[in-house]
Specification:
The chain has about 120 residues and is mainly beta. Helix content is about 15%, strand content about 55%. It has one domain. It has a twelve-stranded antiparallel beta barrel with strand order 1-2-3-4-5-6-7-8-9-10-11-12. It is globular.
């Protein structure tokens, strides 16, 4: 679940999938710092992004609010489905993200570091 959440965070708090490209996320305690300048803080089941977005997780469902846009992500097994057409599949420490428009990205977790390209 940690990797799927990291992938959701990467997709959610980036302006677009292309903004995720070649980004490293480092997590220390409840704060995640992106090499692209984004910062995310998690308190309980809620993550707050420096861009104003919030994500709340209840069970296998994550609700993301980005101002005038809301997206719901549901996880079943190793696959997460977004109401916006995004899918993320996790195998081991690697998550493959498809934005629903033919663009793909890969995120890998090593310790407290998440690398996305």
């Amino acid at each position: 679940m940690k990797l799927i959440k990291a992938a959701i965070v990467a997709v959610t708090f980036a302006a677009s999938l292309s903004a995720v490209a070649n980004t490293t996320y480092s997590t220390y305690g409840n704060t995640t710092y992106g090499s692209n300048g984004t910062t995310m803080q998690t308190y309980g089941n809620t993550t707050y992004g420096s861009n104003g977005a919030t994500a709340q997780t209840y069970g296998n469902t994550t609700y993301v609010n980005q101002g005038n846009q809301s997206t719901t992500y549901q996880t079943y097994g190793n696959t997460t489905y977004g109401s916006n057409g995004t899918t993320a599949q996790t195998y081991g420490n690697t998550t493959y993200i498809n934005d629903g428009h033919g663009n793909t990205s890969t995120c890998q977790v090593y310790g407290n570091q998440t690398y996305c390209n």
